C-alpha cells in the first residue's frame, strides 16, 4: 500500500499540534514528560498516527452521502481542541482534579485500549471507512469478527480514548468533554444506521437484532 506523503505530513503536524496543546496546558515539556503515564500516552498517540497511515481511511462521499450529518465534524473538532488543552491546564492549576499517579496510569491503559479498538475496525473496513456518512462503491455489510456483536466498535474506541485522556490528566473537565462527545457521536450513529438500513434493508435489520450499537448489553 502506497502511503501519501501529503497525508502523512498533515497527520503528523496535526498530531504534534494536539500534543503541544497538552504540553502547553500542563506548563511545558518538563512538566508533561515528568509523568511516565503521559510519556506513554504521547508515544501511543504517535503509534496510532503511524498505524492510521497504513489504512485506507478517506473522506470520500462515495455513491451516496448524508450531508446533513456533516455538522458533527466541526463539533468533534471543537471538542477535540478543548480536550487537548483544558484537561492539562486544569491538571496544572489543580482545579477539578482527582487521584494521583495511579489515575494517570489507568488513563494511559484505557487510552491504549481505546486506540486499538479505534484503529482495528478501520483496517477491517478498508475503503468503506470514510470520515463522512456515506455508502462507498462496492459497499458490503460486515457482520463478523469485531463487528459480530458490536455495530460501532471504532466509535466505542473513540469514547474510551477520550476517557483515558481525561484520566491521564486526572481531569473532571476532561470527563465532561468526553461525555459531551456522546451527543454528536450518537447523531452520527443514527445517520449511519438510517443510510445502511436504506442500502441493505432486511439484512441490516436482522444484523441490528443480534448486535448492540455501542456498548454490549446496554446500548
UniProtKB/TrEMBL annotation:
Upper lineage: Bacteria, Pseudomonadati, Pseudomonadota, Gammaproteobacteria, Pseudomonadales
Record's subcellular location: Membrane
One of the Pfam families matching this protein, by short name: ICMT
Membrane-protein topology: Multi-pass membrane protein
InterPro entries: ICMT_MeTrfase
Protein name: Protein-S-isoprenylcysteine O-methyltransferase Ste14
Transmembrane segments: 7-32, 38-59, 71-90, 102-120, 155-187
UniProt entry keywords in alphabetical sequence: Membrane, Transmembrane, Transmembrane helix
The species this protein was found in: Pseudomonas mohnii
Amino acid at each position: 500500500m502506497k502511503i501519501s506523503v501529503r497525508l502523512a505530513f498533515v497527520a503528523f503536524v496535526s498530531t504534534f499540534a494536539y500534543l503541544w496543546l497538552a504540553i502547553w496546558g500542563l506548563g511545558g515539556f518538563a512538566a508533561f514528560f515528568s509523568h511516565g503515564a503521559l510519556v506513554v500516552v504521547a508515544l501511543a498517540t504517535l503509534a496510532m498516527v503511524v498505524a492510521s497511515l497504513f489504512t485506507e481511511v478517506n473522506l470520500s462521499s462515495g455513491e451516496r452521502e448524508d450531508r446533513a450529518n456533516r455538522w458533527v465534524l466541526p463539533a468533534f473538532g471543537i471538542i477535540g481542541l478543548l480536550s487537548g488543552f483544558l484537561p492539562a491546564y486544569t491538571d496544572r492549576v489543580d482545579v477539578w482534579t482527582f487521584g494521583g499517579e495511579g489515575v494517570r496510569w489507568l488513563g494511559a491503559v484505557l487510552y491504549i485500549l481505546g486506540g486499538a479498538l479505534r484503529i482495528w475496525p478501520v483496517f477491517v473496513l478498508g475503503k468503506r471507512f470514510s470520515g463522512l456518512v456515506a455508502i462507498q462503491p462496492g459497499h458490503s455489510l460486515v457482520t463478523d469478527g469485531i463487528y459480530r456483536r458490536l455495530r460501532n466498535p471504532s466509535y466505542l474506541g473513540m469514547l474510551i480514548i477520550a476517557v483515558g485522556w481525561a484520566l491521564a490528566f486526572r481531569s473532571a473537565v476532561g470527563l465532561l468533554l468526553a461525555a459531551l462527545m456522546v451527543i454528536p457521536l450518537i447523531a452520527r450513529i443514527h445517520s449511519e444506521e438510517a443510510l445502511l438500513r436504506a442500502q441493505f434493508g432486511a439484512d441490516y435489520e436482522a444484523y441490528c437484532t443480534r448486535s448492540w450499537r455501542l456498548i454490549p448489553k446496554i446500548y
